[in-house]
Structure formats: C-alpha cells, structure tokens
Design a protein that fits this description.
380 residues, alpha/beta, TIM Barrel, Immunoglobulin-like, four-stranded antiparallel beta sheet
Length: 380
C-alpha cells in the first residue's frame, strides 16, 4: 500500500508541474507559433490569449493575396500576441520576379504598418526550391533595404539541411558564407533556423554548436528556431516538448520555435496539444516573477489508461466554482463531469466510462480565470 501511495504522489508531483499566470512577458525570449490560415479568427485569438506567455505569432501571408485581406487578422491577433509577418512563404518565393516582390513588400508595410512587430523578409531562403540564387539575393536585399529605410525590425529564416540537401551549394552554412551580403550579417535583427527532422532522416542536430556558429556570423542578431513541427500525429507531443524546452546557452539565443501547425493542432484551445504547449510554457519561469506553486489549480487522473473507471484528482487553491468537462478527440463536448462550488482543498472525482467507446478523451477543469486540460485514454 505504501508503494502505491508513493507512486500516486510521484505521479501527482510530475503531472502537477502546472502553474498559471496570464500573458507574462519575457523580453529576452521569444515564444513563437505559426498561423498559416486566418479562418476561425476568434478561436485563434482565444487560444493565444489563454496561453501563459505572451506569444509571437508568425502570420503567413499567402501568395497573390492583397495586404488588405490580412488587416483584421493582424489587428485581432496583435491584441493578444506579438506579430511576425512572413512576407512570402518559401514555397511561393519563385513565383515572384524582383519587381513584384518589391511591390509586395511596399504594399504590406504600407497597409499593415505598426501592427506587425517583426518582418520576415525571407523564409527558408537557402532552400533549393526558391530558384536562382542571384535572383533570391536581389529580392531579399531589396526587401531588407526597404524595411530598414522604414525603421522596421527584420528577420531572416534559413533552412537547416545537414546532409539532406539536393545541391551542396544550398547547405545552410555554405550558402550563408558564400552568398549572403556582409551588411546583412551585421544588420539583421532576428536570424531564425527552420528545421523539420522528418525531412532529414530524423537527424538530431547539435543545436548548441549550430547556434554558437551562427552567433559568430551574425554577432548583432537575436537567434533561434524559426520553424519546427511534424505531420506525424504520434510524434507531435514529443516534438513540441523537445523544441520548446531546448537548452541552448549561446549569447542572444532567444528561443522562437514557431510551431508550424499551431492552427491545426492548438485551435480551438480545447485540443490536447494546446494543453501540452501550455504545460511546457508553464515550466519556463519568467525572470522577475516568483511562482507560488502552492496556489495553483491542478488536476490529473489515475489510472491512465483505464478500463472502465478512473479517479480524477484535483486541487482547488481557493474557494471557487469548479467545472470539469469531458471532450472527445476532436474537441466536441461529451458531458459535464462536475459543475459546483468547492471550498479550498483537494478532491477526488470517480469517473466511470462504461457508456463510452475506447479512445482518447480530454478533460478540462475551469475555475476562476484558470483552466487546465489533460488527456485520458480509455482502453476496453
């Protein structure tokens, strides 16, 4: 019995490593996500607003779309997040000639103005698919000069492709050393690295070495991960945890990450991966903020997986109405497990899933201005 109790305490200690405070800002770090589709805008805004850090949201501006199309989206997202505007995604870069690209840069700056905090003027810029290198350099040089003349904050994203390039001349460091103008190496505000390990045989780079090397090349730039993610459903949580908790000590390393599939994986915020991201961000303390881990709403269930019953353990840090709702794997509400006033304390809720099919479910506990979402697995 002591071993079982000890195990429960250990599980509770691990799972209860959640703490909540609203949109705390750490100016030395960037916590990024990517939005490649602005539909369901209110749900996007809500999901960003409820994360414990103030995020930086890359908005991908689609090819041949007028800047006015993004006006409302940029303004709405900017209310709850910093905004990095991706002027043109790498896959569409070759569709524009120099004049068209210059016109696009001017149009977007003029229309979206100060609601964009960072302007990404080149994305995965050394990728083979962007076209002739001379043309690429002409486009990004023109864009960079326009942005700097308008006192805008600039960002450039490179594609990390160690031993997975088609042309050796497009290897990231080779391309930077041989093609990127020297004035950009000293003047770009943010230098990002895009990496999808699915594209590189699951290779795990030595990120400390990569960023140490980039810091030598870009001595004045803030640097970090500019894109990451995976389409492998069973790997998403693993990848998300790995990237957002990366330990890099290079001077001016600011994080970034910009999970590419944020819209698909984390909107609406009842989705499981949104809860994972929230948990991960909560484990990163913001300098100057003291976290009182005794004053936190906490919830977990055990056993998990279970059949057909489990116990939901939850902590109420102060007197409050408590609501616990069950959702299916696609975020549809199944039933309300609890909705009543509770005094400060720790409680156990018995849950029997006899009437439910096997599968993944999510439960969200809400109290005051706090919510915690976890996953449970029913195996029959």
């Amino acid at each position: 019995m002591k071993r079982i109790i000890s195990l429960l305490i250990l599980i509770q200690t691990i799972i209860f490593s959640h703490f909540a405070f609203s949109n705390a800002s750490d100016t030395n770090k960037v916590y990024g996500v990517t939005i490649d589709n602005i539909s369901n805008l209110n749900a996007i805004r809500t999901s960003l607003r409820n994360l414990p850090k103030k995020m930086t949201t890359r908005i991908v501006f689609d090819e041949w779309m007028p800047a006015t199309y993004y006006n409302t989206a940029v303004q709405t997202i900017h209310q709850v997040s910093y905004v990095m505007g991706e002027i043109l995604d790498s896959w569409s870069f070759s569709q524009y000639n120099l004049t068209q690209y210059i016109n696009r840069v001017n149009e977007y700056i003029s229309t979206l103005g100060n609601n964009v905090d960072i302007w990404e003027f080149g994305n995965e810029i050394n990728g083979e698919w962007l076209g002739n290198t001379t043309d690429v350099i002409q486009k990004i040089s023109s864009a960079y000069n326009i942005l700097k003349s308008n006192n805008k904050t600039t960002a450039l994203t490179f594609y990390y492709n160690y031993e997975c390039w088609e042309n050796p001349q497009n290897e990231m460091f080779y391309w930077i050393h041989n093609y990127l103008p020297s004035y950009m190496k000293t003047g770009i505000d943010y230098v990002w690295v895009s990496y999808y390990e699915d594209d590189c045989n699951n290779y795990q780079p030595n990120w400390q070495k990569v960023f140490d090397s980039l810091k030598v090349i870009f001595p004045n730039s803030k640097i970090g991960i500019g894109e990451c993610g995976t389409t492998k459903v069973n790997k998403k949580e693993e990848y998300m945890r790995r990237y957002y908790t990366m330990k890099v000590t290079t001077k001016n390393y600011v994080g970034g990450y910009f999970w590419w599939y944020y819209k698909q994986d984390c909107v609406p915020y009842t989705k499981y991966l949104w809860g994972v991201l929230k948990e991960v961000l909560n484990t990163i303390p913001t300098p100057g903020i003291v976290i009182d881990t005794n004053n936190l709403a906490k919830v977990f269930n055990y056993p998990n997986p279970f059949n057909p019953s489990t116990k939901i353990y939850y902590k109420v840090p102060q007197n409050s109405n408590v609501k616990i709702t069950l959702f299916d794997a696609v975020g549809r509400e199944i039933l309300i497990l609890l909705n009543e006033y509770k005094a400060q304390g720790e409680y156990i809720l018995d849950f029997n899933a006899n009437n439910l099919a096997s599968g993944i479910y999510f439960y969200k506990m809400e109290m005051m201005n706090t919510s915690v979402t976890n996953k449970m697995i029913l195996l029959k």
